[in-house]
Amino acid sequence: MPAEIELKLFFPLQVRSDIITHFSRLEAAISQEPIHLANAYFDTPQLDLRALDMGLRIRSGINVNEQTIKTSGKVVGGIHSRPEYNVDISGNFPELALFPPHIWPSSESAASLQSQLYCLFNTDFERRCWHIQLGESLVEVALDLGSISSDNAKGEAAMSSVSEPICELEFELLSGKPAALLTLAQDLAAKVPVAIARASKAQRGYRIAGLGALPKLKAIADISELSQGSGALAVLEYGLDAWPLLLENLAVLTPLMNGANLSAIIDAWSQLISVLELLQGAVVTISSKIEPEKLAAVNLEFTKVKDCLSQVIELLNTLANASEAPNAWPQITSEQRPEQTQELLQFNWLEQLKQLQHNLVMGQLQLNLLGLLLAGSGKE
After folding, report:
1. Domain spans of the chain?
2. Is the whole-model pTM more than 0.85?
3. Mean pLDDT over residues 118-128, rounded?
4. How far apart are CA 26 and CA 21, in angstroms?
């Protein structure tokens, strides 16, 4: 089974009509009829499928339902690649025995898992699609709008919001080269704000159901020592994974900001700024291999994104200078630093996040960096 290869982007709801207009006007685009997709995701109480890095869903259709399992894959700079198996079924509950037996780690797995399955969460959205021929490549662009929800939320999620909006684009490579995904995404990013998406609908669903924590960023120090050749590409790959992760975490944490999660918000912002510095350093390292015009554009985009973050950078630098620990972001608690805590709580973090999410340049920079990564690794 060939792996599904796609690029996912988030976008603000306000630009939905602009995106539809953009793709509908492309000469090479063939518009498909909008469809409503209702999906139920399943696992065992012990989350055995998740432990195997598998995602299992049933998608309801008009005359037939489709069960899908996605097996272990990878994400490189925002390009998702994952094997996927689909089987038509008549019911609304998965039949694991219908999938190829080789995907399971042992012959007993499918039978033992089958008896424990239950529905964890649902996605419900409208999908508009375009098939676009770009040279020798064929790409399906899907615009999804709807929600992810759970009626079986566990832990803290059971006492808080158990629904999140779906507002995303998927560029799936049907045939040809992955560079076609990037070309179409960059063309769109020149007109509307977008951001590379790291989390899949399934990953978000597990978190909403209270069955998965926010992903953590691995230590920057582990990667910052890499500087030359493939090391710079490793930094680009790391940064293009970390940047979306941090933005997605902030999108969850910031609307619920209080004294309890303030440190997590501060930490995410400071890590985001550090990641931007790392990415810019990687570009400097490989600058001799980048066309001058492209290099100038990327450097200008870095400047504009940092300008958008100037208030956050200034505040964090002020706090760092006031910290007893040199060259470190201070650990803020209301008991230890009441004045600083009050200042941080009064700062409009949500507005800063929205400014970044609606910044046209952010998506352009992310996609340009992805282009450098693909070119450097020979995956165009």
Report:
1. 1-213, 217-380
2. yes
3. 95
4. 9
- Please identify which residue in the block is written with the tokens 């770009």: 134
The pLDDT tens digits of the residues spanning 170-181 come to 999 999 999 999
Distance of CA 18 to the CA centre of its chain: 21
The encoded tokens of residue 181 equal 């995904």
> Would you state the torsion angle of the CA atoms of residues 200, 201, 204, 206, taken in this order, to the nearest 10 degrees?
-110
**Sequence-distant (≥ 6) Cβ neighbours of residue 182 within 8 angstroms:** 7, 367, 370, 371, 374
The answer to whether the CB of 171 falls within 8 A of the CB of 214 is no
* Beta partners for residue 56, in sequence order: 42, 69
348-359: average pLDDT: 89
Per-residue pLDDT at 257 = 76
Q: Which CATH class is domain 1-213?
A: mainly beta
Helix axes 338-346, 310-322, angle to 10 degrees: 180
Cβ neighbour number for residue 23 with a 10 Å cutoff: 19
Evaluate whether 265 touches 349 at the Cβ level (below 8 Å): yes
Q: How far apart are CA 367 and CA 19, in angstroms?
A: 17
Length of the chain: 380
β-pairing, 118-134 vs 29-31, is antiparallel
- Nearest alpha-carbon partner for 209 in 257, 174, 161: 161
Rounded Cα distance between 365 and 85, Å, is 34
Cα–Cα dist 261/259, whole Å:
6
